[in-house]
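Teaching note: in complex prediction, the entire set of molecules is handled at once rather than each chain in isolation. The prompt given to students was simply: 'Predict the structure of this complex.' The entities are:
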Amino acid sequence: AQSVTQLDSQVPVFEEAPVELRCNYSSSVSVYLFWYVQYPNQGLQLLLKYLSGSTLVKGINGFEAEFNKSQTSFHLRKPSVHISDTAEYFCAVSLYGGYNKLIFGAGTRLAVHP
Amino acid sequence: NAGVTQTPKFQVLKTGQSMTLQCAQDMNHEYMSWYRQDPGMGLRLIHYSVGAGITDQGEVPNGYNVSRSTTEDFPLRLLSAAPSQTSVYFCASSLSGTDTQYFGPGTRLTVL
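The expected output is the structure of the full assembly:
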């Protein structure tokens, strides 16, 4: 069975500082990897996804993530955060060839302070 | 396009009552899913559909029924609500199995 672990439940950071949100997954088969963002009282929005190819994936709003197969990780990074990045971030996996059935991590709440 | 719409936005039920959460999409997506979101647990898949007339169970299907008679609509039915079903429910749709899933705004359900 697949599982996703987001290593930090909360990450406080000052505005314009860099941030890394960590995600590890467990799977015995190939997976697709995703990062979603949820702003307060809203649904989820896709930030980026890894299906195949280059292990460095660039997404919206200046975020990027790197797929590391040997460490089964897919950490999300941004070099300089803004107040508007305050939100909850979810890492998710789906099985290669699966019907887009997402398995989510518990989420990381990013709080950007002025 | 309206995208994925969900109704109602909020609902309070008493234990044992039944209700249907509505989900519709206007993007002609084949794949649709229902998730529930609970604090500290992320989102968990309840049921999903890969096309009209085809549905299957996800991680936490007990207590929920679905059907998919049209491409556009994917309602979620609670036959006898229980306090454990208090949650925020999200519907999502995608064009294919590897395509981006688009999420609706959610329905916040409280069962007393």
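Point out the following to students. The two ends of chain B are 36 Å apart (CA to CA). The mean pLDDT of chain B is 93.
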